Amino acid sequence: PARMALPEDTAVHAGIGGEMFRQVIGRFFLGVSKAAAPWKYIQNAPLDLFPWSIFLPWTVLYVWRRRREDISMRLLLAWSVPAFVFFSICIGKRDIYLLPIYPALAILTARSVLDLAESGRAVWRKRTGYAWAILLLLIGTVAFGVKFSSFSEMWSRGLLAFGVTALAFGLVTLAASASTDMRALHKTVAAHFVVLALLIPFSIFPGLDRFKGASEICEPLRELSVQNRDYRLYAIGFEREEYVFYSRHFLTPVLTDIL
Known about the structure:
- The protein has 259 residues and is mainly alpha-helical.
- Helix content is 64%, strand content 2%.
- The protein has a two-stranded parallel ribbon with strand order 1-2.
- Helix 12 links the parallel strand 1 and strand 2.
- Helix 4 crosses helix 6 and helix 5 crosses helix 6.
- It is flat.
- The two termini are 31 Å apart.
């Protein structure tokens, strides 16, 4: 209906049948866009659920054991599992397809994590604590390793602060896992993640922007746009919104279908 509401002389309106075939049949069966293997979402789950994916082994075990526990558990599983399987079968895959099941996954994770914190399973908590500590130590080490890599231009005082913070959190968690029963592990993980997430915009993104951002390469074009100079901008083989944004000028894609 949204496409049919467009003026009749537009290309989208004229090709509504072909467009529907491409977007529905084409994406599901033919993989016309974002084709990926059936296990893509399983591979991406640890990153998509981070940092709570550190509890993923326990969460999977908890949900399996209590899958028939009550109507609320059955609701959460009916909400998340069929959609996960359906979009895993679909050849075309994008992370946003699973967005509607994130609330259910969050509730399932919360139930499992709170159960772990309130139970007598200290061994599970300590092992998970060790895993979180090792991950933090690796993150901190990688941050320092940037200085001696081919991406040394990313090194900054902000990245230094990020690396020191991650290493400090890792050492503290390592010591706590060895000396306590880690009942507050979920609170510790949440606190650590919040601090590191707040540091990322000041430590990682500025350096990363030099390698992946479009701002620097568009600067000469942006100057022409600010001066109201008349020029034509072409993109060969692609069409990306960030180049329009940073150059402040519309572009014309060329040879996109071929390339």
